[in-house]
Design goal:
The protein has 207 residues and is an alpha/beta fold. The chain is built from seven helices and eight strands.
Length: 207
């Protein structure tokens, strides 16, 4: 089982934390509103705790469940407190009308987060192609991930499996831009061809 800290108190935090607790993982939730974090930890049960924003996270895996615009500043704020941690970036970097990415060509949100993190931390992109409310419904889903460190990806994959989900390794961190692009496509599909957000992205193996 894994030890995880989740920074952020939104819907994705609740969805991931709920499944993580059910899977037997140690869970810490962290947010700017300390009272809200404590309330969420109490709701989660299973020994979940509330951490303090800015202090060293208890988990070996640290999930950044915040908007992309906040992710890099938060990682920079933590600084060396994130040394040796595996950082799981779940952010999407689409612009407001889902017509493009806010990151420059040749990079990704995950890569920008990696630049801000200590050298001994490893960033893995994951969960950005899963809508929070779909994750909260339970059931099997595919989680695409990307990262440069094999052991970090193994650790994240193990966590994903405890959530009852299937991890699919998409390659190195340079692929994160295209995972973020897939997140943009999902938002655009929801607004156009599908017409709602009640769907998931997965891989079907032929044969």
């Amino acid at each position: 089982m894994s030890s995880i800290s989740i920074i952020g108190l939104g819907a994705m935090t609740r969805a991931i934390a709920t499944r993580a607790v059910e899977g037997g993982n140690a869970v810490e939730v962290i947010g700017r509103d300390a009272a809200k974090a404590k309330d969420l930890a109490a709701e989660l049960g299973g020994g979940a705790t509330a951490g303090t924003l800015g202090t060293t996270p208890a988990g070996d895996l640290v999930i950044l469940a915040v908007p992309y615009a906040s992710a890099v500043p938060i990682v920079a704020q933590y600084g060396d407190a994130l040394a040796g941690k595996v950082l799981i970036d779940i952010t999407n970097t689409s612009n407001s009308d889902a017509t493009g990415l806010v990151t420059p060509d040749g990079t990704s949100g995950a890569q920008e987060i990696a630049k801000a993190a200590p050298a001994s931390a490893h960033v893995v992109k994951a969960f950005n192609t899963v809508f929070g409310h779909i994750l909260a419904q339970g059931g099997p889903l595919d989680v695409l991930l990307a990262g440069n460190d094999a052991q970090a990806k193994t650790s994240v994959s193990a966590l994903i499996e405890t959530l009852g989900l299937r991890p699919l390794d998409a390659g190195g961190l340079e692929v994160a831009r295209w995972l973020e692009g897939a997140g943009l496509v999902m938002i655009s599909l929801a607004r156009h061809g599908v017409g709602n957000f009640n769907f998931s992205l997965g891989v079907n193996l032929a044969g």
